[in-house]
Design goal:
Elements (H helix, E strand, L loop, with lengths): L7 E2 L2 E9 L3 E9 L5 E9 L7 H14 L10 E7 L2 E7 L3 E3 H7 L4 H20 L10 E2 L8 E4 L4 E3 L6 E2 L20 H4 L6 H17 L9 H10 L10 H10 L11 H11 L8 H13 L18
Antiparallel strand pairs: 1-2, 2-3, 3-4, 4-6, 5-6, 7-9, 8-11, 9-10
Helix pairs in contact: 3-5, 3-8, 7-8
Length: 316
């Protein structure tokens, strides 16, 4: 045992704990193969107190099934779903870096890099939103938990959106349930707070909240606690954006509209609008992002790796 960790989970050697959330933890593991082959992986499993939680087990299985179908440079891939001593675990890409929230709290990215990072997230979301079933029918997937802790930035400058445990298909069986809220309160859209049916524009609202936070250090609907945050989002009053660069304000304001029909129609449309408004971001790429990650590590940034699921909690 490694402290309170097993030496292995199925065929994976456990190296250390990467992080822990309210319901799950993520471990660094190593897959072993023939002739000295090794590969680092991230392994998500429920915390001990939630290992008999049927709902969390269902979410982990759903995350694994969906993640196994995802192959995109801006989305974390799932490699395996295992069972160890009666508990399921999910094996994912290991991202050697940090989550966007940890990075932002250490060093501000600046406007150009913030827009670039968000543009990469939007590419991943576009792929997710456009996924179809085996018959070519669009699934209408909605992530529902786009937030800085679920955006992973690697030391080599990759941007990957993680955590598919609460992703829902809205156009087929198993539609997003009305009056069921999942996700981190501060990044929810008004329709998500109200428990209304969701589509891809819900995720675009969350992206804009995240962008404002990257640009200004504060979220546009922040309040004294969860209840006040939810009320401000529900009211969807146009937030003060004086700290947002003037060139971006119109795009951000449209993205934060309380009415989905007034927002950008899809992730690629929003991405184009952002890059047209702030074209300097088009000149950035993995090298600049890698330097930002390296700079944050020099400032004693928190540890790297995927963040565990923190569904239905207030993420301050």
């Amino acid at each position: 045992m490694l402290g309170d960790l097993p030496a292995t989970l199925g065929p994976y050697r456990v190296i250390r704990r990467l992080g822990s959330g309210g319901m799950a933890e993520v471990l660094l593991g190593e897959a072993l193969g023939a002739s000295g082959f090794t590969r680092l992986v991230a392994i998500k499993r429920p915390l001990l107190s939630f290992r008999d939680d049927d709902e969390l087990t269902r979410l982990l299985i759903a995350e694994a099934r969906l993640g196994a179908r995802i192959h995109h440079r801006n989305l974390v891939s799932v490699h395996d779903l295992g069972l160890h001593e009666g508990t399921y675990y999910v094996v994912m890409d290991y991202v050697d870096g940090a989550d966007l929230g940890s990075l932002r709290r250490t060093i501000s990215p600046g406007a150009e890099l913030a827009v670039y990072v968000v543009s990469e997230v939007l590419l991943g979301l576009h792929h997710l939103h456009c996924l179809a079933d085996q018959h070519g029918r669009p699934l209408g997937l909605v992530h529902r938990d786009v937030s800085p802790s679920n955006v992973l930035v690697s030391s080599s400058g990759e941007v990957k959106l993680a955590d598919y445990g609460i992703v829902k298909a809205t156009r087929l069986a198993g539609n997003t349930a009305v009056n069921v809220r999942r996700g981190k309160f501060a990044y929810m859209s008004p329709e998500q707070v109200a428990g209304e049916p969701l589509d891809a524009r819900c995720d675009l609202f969350s992206v804009m909240v995240m962008l404002v936070e990257l640009l200004t250090g504060a979220r546009p609907f922040d309040g004294e606690g969860p209840a006040e945050v939810l009320e401000r989002i529900r009211e969807a009053a146009s937030p003060a954006l004086q700290a947002v660069p003037a060139a971006l304000r119109a795009v951000v304001r449209q993205g934060l509209s309380g009415f989905p029909g007034d927002r950008h129609t899809d992730a690629l449309t929003l991405r184009r609008a952002l890059l047209d408004a702030y074209p300097a971001a088009r000149n950035l790429g993995p090298p600049e992002l890698s330097r930002w990650v390296a700079g944050s590590e020099g400032e004693d940034s928190p540890a790297s790796g995927p963040s565990p699921s923190q569904s239905t909690v207030y993420d301050p």
